[in-house]
């Protein structure tokens, strides 16, 4: 991995973001635009993508929109070419596009299972390799793949999604190892969100009557966006966003029997809502086509804006200060970072309240 100084600051970067019209991708695009990056944004829904681009351009950002299905290798190659033709290079590439699927593995059709992998796994492969080819001419860049804590902690009902994210983790780690010597200036980061308050469940195809839901604690999509942009400026191997998932990982490793029992007893009620019917809650899912209601946040009653666990991974130097200060009762290092994030969070809430995007899609 290269030194920190080799990656450009966000305000000087050209950043490609897939899945940019909803959830984490949309939050990342808005935050990067606010910080002065030039953006190339991609999603399947061309109309929604234009709305996002126009909204960001109205705020002064330089944005180029390229309708893209990441499962189509040729389309992803065109996306990379468009970025270079428009802005001359690619500094960071964020593979965010993904689709959810709820159902036990023995009830999911092979067609649905394959389609999920086309987006969740092959989309990451196509994007990563296109980015690598483009970045080699510059000798530096950041490839940032959005995985999931579920690649470490498998849960029932999302087996196909779990498998796809496990494949993303394996591919990302292998790619990092492959280019460590040949391309030391290119960093490869895996972001592992836990439960994030995006419209994830509203986009899901489900094989059950109850409406899908994400278990608490849920974290803000803006926290994921900040982790992504931090990785674009500083090489970081991986970042867990939110502390709930890693806590389950520790439980799985130390007490596997208790973990398996908990999964059998509690995971289904934590992932399906008996008070809401899927037919009423879900509109058309996004497995084979884009949704029409892209938003950064989903319809959740509450979520957390901060995670000290995540901040410690983003700012390891500050985390050392935090550990030392904790002995004296003062969290000085991360406290300063949190105050800075508080200011960004306030602006993010304004973005949530006002958006020109009424019909976005992943």
UniProtKB/TrEMBL annotation:
The chain crosses the membrane at residues 314-334. Signal peptide: none annotated. One of its GO terms (cellular component) is membrane. It comes from the Bacteria. GO terms for molecular function: oxidoreductase activity. Residues 13-194 form the Ketoreductase domain. Keywords: Membrane, Oxidoreductase, Transmembrane, Transmembrane helix. SUPFAM superfamilies: NAD(P)-binding Rossmann-fold domains (SSF51735). Residues 338-362 are annotated as: Disordered. Belongs to the short-chain dehydrogenases/reductases (SDR) family. This is Dehydrogenase. The lineage of its organism: Bacteria, Pseudomonadati, Pseudomonadota, Alphaproteobacteria, Hyphomicrobiales.
């Amino acid at each position: 991995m290269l030194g920190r100084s080799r990656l450009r600051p966000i305000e000087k970067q050209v950043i490609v973001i897939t899945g940019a019209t909803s959830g984490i991708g949309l939050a990342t695009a808005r935050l990067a635009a606010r910080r002065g990056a030039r953006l190339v944004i991609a999603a399947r829904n061309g109309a929604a993508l234009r709305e996002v681009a126009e909204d960001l351009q109205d705020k002064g950002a330089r944005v180029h929109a390229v309708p893209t299905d990441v499962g189509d290798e040729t389309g992803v190659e065109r996306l990379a070419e468009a970025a270079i033709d428009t802005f001359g290079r690619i500094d960071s590439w964020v593979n965010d596009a993904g689709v959810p699927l709820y159902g036990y593995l023995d009830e999911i059709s092979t067609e649905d299972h394959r389609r999920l992998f086309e987006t969740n796994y092959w989309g990451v492969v196509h994007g990563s390799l296109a980015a690598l080819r483009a970045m080699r001419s510059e000798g530096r860049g950041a490839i940032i793949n959005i995985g999931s804590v579920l690649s470490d902690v498998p849960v029932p009902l999302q087996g196909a999604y779990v498998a796809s994210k496990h494949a993303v983790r394996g591919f990302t780690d292998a790619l990092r190892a492959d280019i460590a010597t040949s391309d030391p200036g290119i960093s490869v980061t895996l972001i592992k969100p836990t439960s994030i308050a995006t419209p994830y469940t509203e986009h899901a195809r489900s094989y059950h009557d109850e409406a899908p839901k994400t278990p608490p604690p849920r974290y803000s999509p803006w926290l994921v966006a900040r982790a992504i942009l931090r990785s674009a400026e500083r090489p970081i191997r991986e970042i867990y966003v939110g502390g709930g998932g890693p806590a389950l990982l520790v439980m799985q490793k130390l007490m596997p029997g208790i973990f398996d029992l908990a999964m059998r007893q509690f995971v289904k009620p934590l992932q399906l809502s008996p008070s809401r019917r899927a037919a009423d809650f879900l509109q058309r899912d996004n497995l084979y086509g884009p949704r029409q209601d892209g938003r950064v946040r989903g319809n959740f009653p509450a979520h957390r804006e901060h995670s000290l666990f995540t901040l410690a991974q983003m700012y390891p130097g500050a985390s050392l200060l935090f550990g030392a200060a904790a002995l004296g009762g003062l969290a000085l290092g991360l406290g300063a970072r949190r105050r800075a994030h508080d200011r960004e969070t306030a602006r993010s809430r304004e973005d949530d309240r006002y958006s020109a995007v009424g019909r976005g899609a992943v």
